[in-house]
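re the bet — no i am not wrong, look at it urself. input seq straight from the record:
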Amino acid sequence: MLSDRFGRTIDYLRVSVTDRCDLRCSYCIPKGFKGFEEPENWLTFDEMERVIAAFARLGTRRFRLTGGEPLLRRNLPALAARLSALPGVEDLSLTTNGTQLDKHAKALFDAGLNRLNVSLDSLRRDCVQEISGSDSLEKVLHGLSAARDAGFKTIKINMVPMVGVNDGDIEAMIAFCIEHGFILRLIEAMPMGSTGQHTQGLNLSRLLADLSQRFELQESCKTLGGGPARYWESRDGRFTLGLITPMSQHFCATCNRVRLSVDGTMYMCLGQEERFELRPLLRAGCSDAELEAAIRHAIELKPEKHEFIERPNQVVRFMSMTGG
């Protein structure tokens, strides 16, 4: 198994297949932004498969396809099929904004994807348009319906509550998830780039006590993915809530993941600048042994913790550049 210099096992790789997105969510990509990576610098599907196969040989078992919006990458279900067939890949999932999901849900399920995370910050059309810069609510709802019809059993809704924007929509989102059998995950906004640094997220640790009492939640012992979310369930088992709290209660001591951006850069932490570029090695014809040695070296660069609280202006790259 891969482990870093702090003794943490790295068994989860998030792979960005594109930094482009059809939305401009207020906490992610600024309006008018055009500084996307040039296509010739994108890793090819063959290169992505090589890297993921190397991670799998080194003991990594969980992989997630992200972006930007990953469904903007042409023929993504074909890549998913290739990756799900690799020895050692036990869990392959996808994070999407849902706008393209109705067109691809069946192909993704047939390709071997296990789970979906769909970003949705409100059920109010005007609020979704305010946050995302697009009148996209109906597209996302159609995508969610298509995913259920395709056969996906585990669908998580990712919601970023923001003070004065959508923090009053949490109860409606809970009712929606109970009705449709979705898992709701509330995520604290992080100060990444100018967008994140100007977003006032909600302190979810303070919110938990209120939600636990109102919805009779108890901590869950279920394993619902490889990420940092902690989960609670209602007593009747109809509702599951996940919280991701990088700001109010960070989980750096148990961090098990690294990220691969679309240009082949490995990022070791969302809140730090440590990185390692794999693309030059891949395009120079490195051997599998050299690739595995490079990955091991990169893991050694992983820092002990982020500094979002101490240095909130440190990370200037946007979330879409790193990979969600």
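see?? The chain has a mean pLDDT of 92. told u. also The radius of gyration is 19 Å. so pay up
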